[in-house]
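Sequence, please.
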């Protein structure tokens, strides 16, 4: 109940803020730039107020048209909260992933240092000829690029394993939480499925991510060489555009890959087929994924803000009221540091909540395609499914807001 109220109030506040901003710009701020006939700022503020009112109307229209999708997003996040409550030990996964990634980075750095030290000592170019550098051969340079690629691949593989376990655990819990097992042990089931059936799929998905990251790395490597040769403005613009497109490609591939992992857990298909199915599912239910992401964004911002305010506030009160235990000249800097660290830590753990909600949404959509056979689904989803059945929409609901 509280979660749904937070979402609707947040949306209403945004619409009200846009309307209020338009009113303030049009009736108050604009009057400071009279006369209107000769002052361009007056006209700009007029157009700005129209834009704000247009955005407010557009958002209000989206809220009305996608009312059902927003309700589904709220129900998904309530269900995700139930899943997290039943599987609190899932928060150990980021710790495990961090430890393993740290060990891998240490090994990688040790190997990279050995590669860096391999070569022929030679004097630097003028005017630093008195200094010595290591000249690489082509083979050494290829080995270095291979090591960089393996850094990206293994790191993406470890992250992918963690994402698959979370997604697999969430979808198994969705269909077993109302059975005799109450959805217990789903995290270990996800780990077993990963090790026995899907390591190859995760390795292939992480390989695709590593290829995109390697393209960005090579592009940056050669861009620095081009920029050192004083390129023209056109070349600089093309380099900037290419860098942005590669960044966009990397983000899209990562988003598609993590949704493909959820489809692998749901259908046990190969990576390529699961990636296509997840893409088709997102296109078919774009309004639902959009509403779910919007609801998730509000919850994440609210959660991170509460964590930062609670941690920083308690830290400030402790530093200000107990100077005998901890003596500082100014409590503000450590308070800010506490807030930033707690916010980053909270964002890392809330990412589990966000990814779990994506998995539960995809499980619900599969349940909908099966026309809600049986009664094995969470309580919030059961209420939503029954309401859809009563309206006679069933699986056709995916075609409208």
């Amino acid at each position: 109940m509280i979660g749904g109220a937070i979402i609707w109030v947040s949306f209403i506040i945004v619409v009200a803020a846009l309307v209020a901003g338009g009113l303030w710009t049009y009736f108050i701020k604009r009057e400071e730039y009279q006369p209107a006939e000769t002052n361009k700022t007056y006209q700009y503020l007029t157009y700005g107020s129209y834009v704000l009112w247009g955005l407010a109307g557009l958002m209000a229209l989206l809220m009305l048209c996608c009312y059902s999708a927003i309700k589904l997003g709220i129900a998904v996040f309530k269900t995700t909260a139930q899943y997290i409550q039943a599987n609190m030990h899932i928060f150990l996964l980021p710790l495990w992933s961090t430890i393993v990634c740290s060990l891998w980075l240490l090994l990688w750095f040790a190997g990279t240092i050995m590669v860096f030290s391999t070569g022929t000592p030679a004097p630097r170019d003028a005017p630093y000829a008195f200094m010595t550098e290591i000249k690489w051969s082509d083979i050494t340079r290829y080995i270095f690029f291979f090591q960089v690629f393996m850094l990206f691949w293994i790191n993406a593989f470890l992250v992918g394993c963690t994402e698959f376990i979370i997604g697999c655990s969430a979808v198994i819990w969705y269909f077993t939480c109302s059975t005799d097992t109450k959805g217990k042990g789903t995290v270990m089931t996800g780990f077993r499925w990963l090790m026995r059936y899907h390591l190859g799929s995760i390795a292939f998905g992480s390989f695709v991510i590593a290829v995109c990251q390697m393209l960005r790395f090579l592009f940056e490597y050669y861009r620095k060489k081009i920029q050192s040769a004083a390129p023209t403005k056109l070349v600089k613009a093309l380099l900037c555009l290419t860098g942005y497109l590669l960044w966009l490609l990397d983000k899209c591939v990562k988003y598609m890959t993590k949704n493909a992992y959820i489809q692998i857990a749901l259908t046990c298909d190969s990576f390529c087929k699961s990636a296509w199915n997840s893409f088709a599912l997102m296109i078919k239910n774009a309004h639902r994924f959009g509403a779910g992401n919007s609801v998730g964004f509000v919850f994440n911002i609210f959660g991170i803000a509460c964590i930062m305010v609670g941690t920083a506030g308690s830290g400030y009160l402790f530093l200000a009221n107990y100077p005998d235990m901890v003596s500082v000249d100014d409590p503000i800097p450590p308070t800010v540091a506490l807030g930033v660290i707690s916010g980053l830590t909270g964002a890392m753990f809330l990412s589990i909540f966000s990814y779990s909600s994506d998995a539960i949404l995809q499980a619900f959509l599969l349940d909908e395609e099966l026309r809600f056979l049986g009664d094995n689904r969470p309580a919030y989803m059961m209420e939503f499914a029954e309401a859809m059945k009563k309206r006679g929409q069933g699986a056709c609901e995916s075609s409208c807001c």
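Residues 2-65 form one domain.
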